[in-house]
Amino acid sequence: MTPAAASSPLVRARSLARVHAGARERPFGPRTRTTALHATDLDIRAGSSLGIIGESGSGKSTLVRLLAALDVPTSGTVEVDGRPVDAAGATRSLHWLRALTGVVFQDPYASLDARMSVGRIVGEPLWALGMPGDHRARVAEVLLRVGLDADAADRFPHEFSGGQRQRIALARAVVHRPRLLLADEPLSALDVSVRARIIELLAQLRTEEDLTLVLVSHDIGVVAHVCDEIAVMKDGRIVERGTTAVVLARPQHPYTQALLAAAPVLPPPPDGIAPDGTDVARSD
Questions:
Q1: 196 sits in which H/E element
Q2: Which among 59, 98, 123, 207 is least buried, having the fewest CB atoms inside 10 angstroms?
Q3: For residue 263, how far is the Cα from the chain centroid?
Q4: CA-closest candidate to residue 68, choices 76, 80, 59
Q5: How far apart are alpha carbons 279 and 283 in whole angstroms?
Q6: Residues in contact with 176: Cβ distance below 8 Å, sequence separation at least 6, in sequence order
Q7: Confidence band of 193 (pLDDT split at 50, 70, 90)
Q8: pTM of the predicted model, to two decimals?
Q9: Measured in Å, how far apart are the chain's first and last C-alpha atoms?
Q10: What is the pLDDT of residues 102-134, one digit of tens each?
């Protein structure tokens, strides 16, 4: 790898925008248009962890879906590892991108196929991408890595709690050893008492698997714990970006200041015991 290549960002977005066409106000009239993401430039360094925060409707999930080629931009470009991403192209043409990325969605109940065993769910990226090696052994290894027993592979999603299902989703996202992990609100559907364990797991996986992490969350505390950098979004625009320490200590944009002022500050439960008296370590 040349020095220039080594210093280039893993993800580069230029003038990336997404506009949705709505209903017609009158028959044969023009459709209404809603801008979910205004023209946005974004660089993400390899090995970094970027948290994207903002209120619902701020464009966070739209941006991540465009980076992952799960949606097609209205305009602009995305490059990952120096290669252009053609989200409108054939599915097979994006196999290289799927091999480089893992995605964790918001709802662990909806993101796992109830008809498939956990082993099939976690191993799906391996056979879909034609990855070499012993797939069954890799599935068992990654299940243990996320804190589940290897025999979980033979069970089905309905047999697990919400926190355990999100562990399964994380296992599926990293089983093929991606370089980039995109997590879209991975904690918002979970009970408060299990979030801390999943946060620690995200941080651990990022280090052990040498991942570049993009974490979308409305929870500033989660982002502060896991991410080195923060991007603040409002009305489809990034209004502030910087290191986590600087943005949280000295926010410059009025919107960032308002978000921080409104964020609740709760002390951690003592000795891993949740407010309801349950053991946090056992509740997920």
A1: helix 192-208
A2: 207
A3: 21
A4: 80
A5: 6
A6: 99, 102, 125, 126, 129, 131
A7: confident
A8: 0.85
A9: 42
A10: 999 888 788 899 999 999 999 999 999 999 999
